[in-house]
Design brief:
The structure is a single chain. The chain is 74% helix and 0% strand. The protein is mostly helical. It folds into two domains: 88 residues, Uncharacterised protein YqeY/AIM41, N-terminal domain (Hypothetical Protein Yqey, Chain: A, domain1, Orthogonal Bundle); 51 residues, Arc Repressor Mutant, subunit A (Orthogonal Bundle). It is globular and about 55 Å long. It starts with a helix and ends with a helix.
């Protein structure tokens, strides 16, 4: 079992003991998503820390999207609950790239690929995706690539 999954388990136990409902609920859901990922496919497997980070990133993205949906649906208390869960999950994810860091990575990837127009966006994204995995939302990366390519 990976170190991150062990940490999640320990933190869940601590949250249960301290009767922290939000943290308990969020960590249970995260660990369930990890277990589902482990048994998905033809053969069960243990996830590496990188795989666990990907699962947690997906879960955090779900919380962000749900919060937006609740907010636009006129349910601010539900939206706040989703944001709080996203904050708990964010504690286990790598630090997100700042705008300046993302801009520099995109500029370097464009220079590396030699792309000069929006038609080559796929090439740039192929280079960038592994570099930004878990540290920046794909939509945010794509928007910056589009902006720099003038598309």
């Amino acid at each position: 079992m990976g170190d991150l999954k062990d940490r999640l388990q320990r933190d869940l136990s601590a949250a249960i003991k301290s009767r922290d409902g939000l943290r308990t609920r969020t960590l249970r859901l995260a660990l369930a998503a990890i277990r589902n990922e482990e048994v998905a496919g033809k053969q069960a497997r243990d996830l590496s820390d990188d795989d666990v980070i990907k699962v947690l990133g997906r879960e955090a993205k779900k919380r962000r999207e749900a919060a937006e949906a609740f907010e636009s649906g006129g349910r601010p208390e539900q939206a706040e609950q989703e944001r709080a869960e996203g904050t708990v999950l964010g504690e286990y994810l790598p630090a997100q790239l700042g705008d300046d860091e993302l801009r520099e990575l995109v500029t370097a990837a464009i220079a590396e690929t030699g792309v000069g127009d929006p038609k080559g966006m796929g090439q740039v994204m192929r280079v960038l995706t592994p570099r930004t995995a878990g540290r920046a939302d794909g939509g945010r990366v794509a928007a910056e690539v589009r902006r720099q390519l003038g598309g």
